[in-house]
Amino acid sequence: MDSLRSAVGADAVRTDDASLDKYGRDETEDLHFPPSVVVLPSSQREVAAVMGLASHEQVPVTPRGGGTGLSGGALPVRGGILLSLERLDRIRRIDPVDMIAEVEAGVVTAHLQEEVELQGLFYPPDPASRESCFIGGNIAEDSAGPRSCKYGTTRHFVLGLEAVLADGTPITTGAAVRKNAAGYDLTQLLVGSEGTLAVVTAAQLRLLALPKARLTLGLPFQRCDEAANSVAEIFRRGFQPAACEFMEQAAILAAAMKVDVPPQVRECEAFLLLEFDGDRPDLLIEQAAALDAITDQLGATETLVAETEVEQRRMWQIRSAAGEAVKGLSDYKEADTVVPRASIGALLQGAHEIADRHRIRAICYGHAGDGNLHVNLLRGGLELSDWQRRRDSAEDDLFALVVRMGGTVTGEHGIGWTQRRHLEKVRSPEEIHLMNSIKRAFDPTGILNPGKVIPDSY
Ligand SMILES: Cc1cc2nc3c(=O)[nH]c(=O)nc-3n(C[C@H](O)[C@H](O)[C@H](O)COP(=O)(O)OP(=O)(O)OC[C@H]3O[C@@H](n4cnc5c(N)ncnc54)[C@H](O)[C@@H]3O)c2cc1C
């Protein structure tokens, strides 16, 4: 403990009960794994010193960003050091010529977005947790959000990284340039590696020009299947929304307990929320009119148009409130399913059939434009062992369905701790062995975020 204190300063080493309790949790269900010590370095040099000590003593280290993860990646399941990156919170520079931002890992995602927007620039990845998650956590999870429908996920914006290896060696990958074809792409290997290969301390991020106009549309449906099937139809007809989000009635009603929801949305069976963006407001209005012209064929009861920023915020808050509102209803397990867009309707129907079969409640919403449906299984009043049995069997059946549809077991929440048993459903033994070889090349003694991603049997 003394060597940790001299590496980062006494106030950056915490062993009090409140800190161990707080940093022993993230947003994954009700799981709790208190670490032995919480360390809050303020620079890459301090992160390297902590990793050097941990490597020497063979102590597990779990990196942590904002602690908003939903697959338990930041839980210190093997104890040891919880390494919080929250003090590395500087935006170092925003370059309007190359359109690149250089930021430390602990910068809150929404803060970066606000800062770049002041300069007419745009950082699209927008997880619903963006007010509290960090860029480092987003990189570790390859996080996404509604706008990934048009712009892609976090990985599409990462050009270079500063990081620290498990033995304390600082490294840089990539560079602050917009193209780079030199050698293996270690930057992209680290993106989505969930803190198991290196601790990210800073990143160079690609920016875009901020679109000058946005238009948000809401389509209420009286039939859930028609809403889900409309997603494929909208793309088939050539529309390219920046976001295409789906909510079923139970999710809307949960959101309505937190935010204002207009009656025509509260009373519908399902709701699609679409956003279009671009530089020409007139073209957006044209797209809205073109969509409105086919709403009857899609089965929507009307087209709600939010033109002003206030109206748009009001419509978006229905979707933004849904995640926390549904999770507030009961203990839950969220399955982060992904299928081809055209299969969203079949997945939704299948998810409810499976839930009914296991006599468990399911509430669905998600990023339908990416084929990404969050299926929340709710415990309700079930006794603990009964809940766990039904939940696990329902989840297995759900993922079997997803795999049959050509999909995958997580689109954005990662494998982390809670989803490890599902990795083999979508990755071959050869692939997992290769992943394990990569893990050993980066972290030969396995101290960095142990117990995550790769099943113990490998
Ligand atoms: C209400 C709510 C809504 C959400 N909505 C979305 C959404 O729309 N889209 C989405 O993708 N996710 C969403 N999430 C999940 C979560 O916010 C994301 O996974 C987010 O990227 C996690 O970032 P974080 O900073 O909180 O990381 P943490 O939860 O602290 O950590 C997540 C993982 O990253 C690792 N890690 C963190 N920082 C570093 C680092 N600097 N170096 C190496 N490894 C690191 C940790 O070890 C862990 O494995 C949501 C969560 C909540 C609670």
Q: What is the number of helical segments per DSSP (H or I, 4+ residues)?
A: 16
The largest pleated sheet is described as: 7 strands, antiparallel
Helicity level: 25-40%
User: What is the end-to-end distance?
Assistant: 33 Å
Structural class designation: alpha+beta
Q: Give the percentage of residues in beta strands.
A: 15-25%
If you average the pLDDT, what whole number results?
96
* Unreliable stretches covering 5 or more consecutive residues: none
Number of strands: 18
Q: How would you sum up the global shape?
A: globular
What binds here, in terms of ligands, is: flavin-adenine dinucleotide
Query: Over all CA atoms, what is the radius of gyration?
Result: 22 Å
For the largest beta sheet, what order do the strands appear in spatially? Answer: 15-12-14-13-17-18-16
Describe the secondary structure blueprint for this structure.
Elements: H1 2-8, E1 13-14, H2 17-22, E2 37-39, H3 44-57, E3 61-64, E4 81-84, E5 91-95, E6 100-104, H4 109-117, E7 121-122, H5 135-141, H6 148-151, E8 158-164, E9 170-174, H7 186-190, E10 199-206, E11 208-209, E12 213-221, H8 224-236, E13 243-248, H9 249-256, H10 263-266, E14 270-278, H11 281-298, E15 304-306, H12 309-327, E16 332-338, H13 344-357, E17 361-367, E18 372-378, H14 384-404, H15 423-426, H16 429-442
Parallel strand pairs: 2-4, 3-4
Antiparallel strand pairs: 1-2, 5-6, 6-10, 7-11, 8-9, 8-10, 12-14, 12-15, 13-14, 13-17, 16-18, 17-18
Helix pairs in contact: 1-3, 8-13, 9-12, 13-14
